[in-house]
């Protein structure tokens, strides 16, 4: 094999335990303490695993040896081969799913694929695809929106659902004020609705004559920017900016009565000469960034005039996100994820993937505000369900990547459909995914993420 080159000799004195998840398989062999025979047994074990793991990480202390193998696990073959080598007669079949630990005395050899770097919790509070996640400013509440008439709010860290907000129509986008007092939602039917976060009472809703594709509060919550699309054949994109206090007051004055369509004046509007699905405020609300359906990334001034325009992706620019300090922009598309200088839109790094990436998020630990600096990002997506039907190659995995070196550190599986949105925990010690199957998955990084040189 060649996989044990450089690995320190292992001394097995009394017994060898093979642990698969919570179950344990005890192999009783006549054991010699010579390193030569121990390495022969290790080679034999790796020969068996060779046929069954797609990627194998051997971690011995802080060092790591990475082996790549094709995967296919068959309990009958493994059991038969173990029986032929003595001492394993009558042992139940082994199920290697996520993690295999071979413990020798106090030392441990950890075999893992995919990277099991977290404790995972599934949140099931939606019946339709979840397309939007948002933490409040304090990081103690998580809001989730799906293609249904409801927004859920979860208590972070305990992940209990503490409430739901009943909307007028299926949610396309949402945001929450910095003081966590108001929740704003938008839908493709053109309805903007505001709720009290505490108690869930609807303050009111406002119906426009456009589709609402995206909305966002400015930093400081002075303005509410909404990306609209007309219903006509031209599908013209319009950006509407409301003064949030005036918008909120108009809803309160209506006192739950229907407000005439398009009766609340906008502070500013401008048309876009291209089709887009998202517009984001830049640092200190000094500009906008827009990703278009033909793969461009555009920087606009506050009047809608183009400052910079570059070709970002093949196909559509699917997402735009920022580092915590706005020093880096991340976009995703059909070809992977790219990272940009906000001032010049110069591409700093390109991490290519084989399937489209619907979302990308940058670790908040990239800023160096804490001792645990991580130049990492997560991205996810996958082929649309209609394209991956009958195929196992949907690409429904989350990629953990190093931005500095432009490489994958590992993948995290578990999703059964496209991944629509990813957000890091505010403390950078985990992340949350929203999937097409309507499940929210919460991950927490384990000790190896902080201790192993692989993740530095």
Strand-helix topology:
Blueprint: E1 16-20, E2 23-27, H1 35-50, E3 55-60, E4 63-68, H2 75-84, E5 99-104, E6 107-112, E7 118-123, E8 130-135, E9 141-146, E10 150-155, E11 160-166, E12 171-176, E13 182-187, E14 191-196, E15 202-207, E16 211-217, E17 223-229, E18 237-243, H3 244-254, E19 268-272, E20 276-281, E21 288-292, E22 296-300, E23 306-311, E24 317-322, E25 329-333, E26 336-340, E27 347-352, E28 357-362, E29 376-381, H4 385-388, E30 398-402, E31 407-412, E32 419-424, E33 430-435, E34 440-445, H5 447-451
Antiparallel strand pairs: 1-2, 1-5, 3-4, 3-6, 5-6, 7-34, 8-9, 9-10, 10-11, 12-13, 13-14, 14-15, 16-17, 17-18, 18-19, 20-21, 21-22, 22-23, 24-25, 25-26, 26-27, 28-29, 29-30, 30-31, 32-33, 33-34
Write up what this structure looks like.
The chain is globular. Mean pLDDT is 79; it is low at 1-36, 51-83 and 85-118. By secondary structure, it is mainly β. It has five helices and 34 strands. It folds into two domains: 16-112, no CATH class; 118-455, 7 Propeller (Methylamine Dehydrogenase, Chain H), CATH 2.130.10. The protein has a six-stranded antiparallel sheet with strand order 2-1-5-6-3-4, with no helix packed on it. A hairpin with a 5-residue loop joins strand 32 and strand 33. The relative contact order is 0.10.
